[in-house]
Amino acid sequence: MSTETYLNHPTFGLLFRVCLVDSSQELFATLYAQRLFFVVKTAAGGLQFDPIGRSDARILVENRLRSLRREGALKDYQLLQKIHKQTFQ
Question: H or E element: which one contains 57?
Answer without folding.
Answer: helix 54-71
